[in-house]
Structure formats: C-alpha cells, structure tokens
Amino acid sequence: MSSKVLDQFLETNLEDLKEKGLFSTIDVLEGSNGPIITVNGMKMINLASNNYLGFATRPELIEADVEATKHYGAGAGAVRTINGTLDIHQKLEEKIAEFKGTEAAIAFQSGFNCNMGAISAVMKKGDAILSDALNHASIIDGCRLSGAKIIRVNHQDMEDLEAKAKAATESGEYNKVMYITDGVFSMDGDVAKIPEIVEICEKYNIITYVDDAHGTGVMGKGRGTVKHFGMQDHIDFQMGTLSKGIGVVGGYVAGTKQLITWLKSQARPFLFSTSLTPGASGACIKAIELIEEHPEYVETLWENANYFKSELKRIGYDIGQSETPITPVIVGDEKLAQEFSKKLLENGVYVKPIVFPTVPLGTGRVRNMPNAGHTKEMLDDAIKVYEKVGKELGIIK
Ligand code: PMP
Predict the structure, then answer these.
(1) Other CB atoms closer than 10 Å to residue 11's CB: what's the count?
(2) Which CATH superfamily is domain 4-56+295-392 in?
(3) Aminotransferase class I/classII large domain: which residues (predicted)?
(4) pLDDT by residue (tens digit) across 241-273?
(5) Is the pTM of this model over 0.90?
(6) CB 186 near ligand 1, within 6 Å
(7) How far apart are CA 126 and CA 134, in angstroms?
(8) Domain 59-293, CATH
C-alpha cells in the first residue's frame, strides 16, 4: 500500500498532465524495432526510430553481441573503477577514439548519463556554460547538475553567441566558460555551424562541447559533424551516443588523453553505475567496423532520406530546412499535427506528432526518420499514405 500523500500527489498531477495534453501513452512493439514494426497486431512502416543505419537489427551486430555475451557473460559485474572494466570496454574506447580521430575516448552506459557525467565533471560553481536554446534535455540537466551559471544562446545565432562569449569572458566573473551545442538538432535537422563556433570560442578561450547524438553514423561519412567540417582538433568534447546511428546503447566522449583521464576519475555515472554490458560493447565495436569498411550504409541512409524528402516536397508538404535525414512535416496547428499522425498510423505509417513545448507554438509537426534499412518500396508506400491523408485533411492539395 502506498502512502496517502503519494497517492494524492500522483492523482492530482497525472490528471493535470492529461488535461494539458502532456501525458504520453507508450506504444509496445511486438517484435523488433526494424523498418517494419507491429503495434497492436498491425504492421506499419516505421518512420519514428533513430536507427539511422538500420543497425539495431543488423545480423552482424546481433552475432557480435551474442559472441561477446558468451565470452564475457551477461553483465560486467561492477562499476568501471572497481573491476567492471573488461578488455572489451577498452577495445570499444580505442575504437571510438580511432573513429573520431582523437587521442582517447570514454564510454558511458547511455548518452543521457554521458552528458550528465561529462559536463558536471568539468564545469563547476563559479563557471559559466553558454548553451544553445534548443539543446537536448540531457545537456540541460547536465548543465544544471554542474552548478555553473547557464547562459542561453539564441538558437544557432552566432551574433548572440559572440556577444555572450565576450560578455562572459570579459566580465572576469567566471573561472572558465564552455559552449555546448547539439551537432545536429533533433527536431529540425539543422547542423551546428562548427567553423564559426570554433572561431568565436578560440577568440575568447572558451571550452567547446558538441553533442553529436544525431550526427554519429550520419555526418562526415559516419564519423560525425565535427569530422564533416574537418574540425577534430578544435573541439574539446566530441560527445555522442551509441544508440542511434550505431544502433545499440551507450554514450561516449572523444577527446585528449588528459580529458579522458579526468573524466574516468570524476564522471559520476562512470564511477558509480555498472558498465555497459559486454554484449552491447561487442555490438558497438562491430557497428563502427561496419561503417569503416562499408561506406554504403551511410550512403544508403542519405539516398533514402534525400529521396523521401524530395517526394514529400513534390506532393506539396512543408518539410522545413532540415540538412540531415531528420525530416519534419510541418503542419502548424497542434491539434492538426495530432490528427495527422493518428490518420497516418491508421493507414500503416508509424510517426509521432511533435508539438509545443517540444517545438515552438504553431509549428506542430510529425517527424520522419527515414533510414538505411528502408527499401524504396517502403518509402513509396509511405508517400502514397502521406498523399492520401494529406488530401483528406486539407494539408496538401
Ligand atoms: N543527446 C541528444 C542530442 C539526443 O537526441 C539524445 C537521445 N534522445 C541523447 C543525448 C541521449 O542519448 P541516449 O538515448 O543514448 O541516452
């Protein structure tokens, strides 16, 4: 039996969430998260997952996972700093560093706790963090945890960044200043202006941190947004996830040996939470090898995304300014976005509505994530549904 106070709190607040339309139900997939998924017995084209290269269900990764599990066991047995560092973790970190073009890397159990751990290990009370207004929730939470002063920078606004970088560094108020940005922004698919960021941050001696969750496996022939711009030697923290393009689970920071040594001794999720499973580590190594040896996975992702985007445009949709495979279909009104995704779902296309407060009011949308696992037929089928539903709802002519 739970306490009365808790019951009351939950009842009131759950009601409140539902009234505000902020309560999200959770769909259960019957089977894997591949290009076709089954939900409530209905097969649908899956355009909602972050599985950019289709690696979540790739046989080579599954095999590598099983092999590592058989060799090392189901779990790592301890946190990294006690005796939960297996040689497969070390191999994964060496692989990430080589892939990202840095001296060293550290692997975490997820991208979320990587941001929580890495930001707070370096930034402290008395420091300041300049943070793009559309940064991911895990960056926001990592910044809050650090105790540093958080200064929001208007989204991708280099003039605002320069002004705030100048003010923060010249005020003499802070011991050190960091700028954090997503490499690829997950809602609009726009890409951080890395060369301009580097120029400003080098001018004011500001630490740079790029969260490339949506760039890893996608940009720079899979090596990320920083590599795409050839800026590996100019970004201090190349952070990313192993859960999207890589297809498994985990997070990482790639950087100098000294930085990684510091993070391994200070980042709290590394110190106090059990390491990645051997199976996940083995599958991540295999994923990076596949990207290195087979450029066609990343190429197929971009071909599929470009094809899907041009088809959506051809039939009359507003797909925003995305520069990456992230493909929003913007309808504006929040209720219309909900109705739109519901109809798409009923017609066999699985996408999710994204509305305020996740995106600005009046820019309601459904977000599509075409990936390398989709066939042209699947994308064509999805386009047919988009055409039918869009006309029914009066979104397109
Ligand atoms: N950063 C960004 C920009 C993300 O989009 C995400 C994933 N939603 C994360 C961090 C967290 O990554 P993970 O799912 O691996 O915890």
Answers:
(1) 10
(2) Aspartate Aminotransferase, domain 1 (3.90.1150.10)
(3) 43-384
(4) 999 999 999 999 999 999 999 999 999 999 999
(5) yes
(6) yes
(7) 24
(8) 3.40.640.10
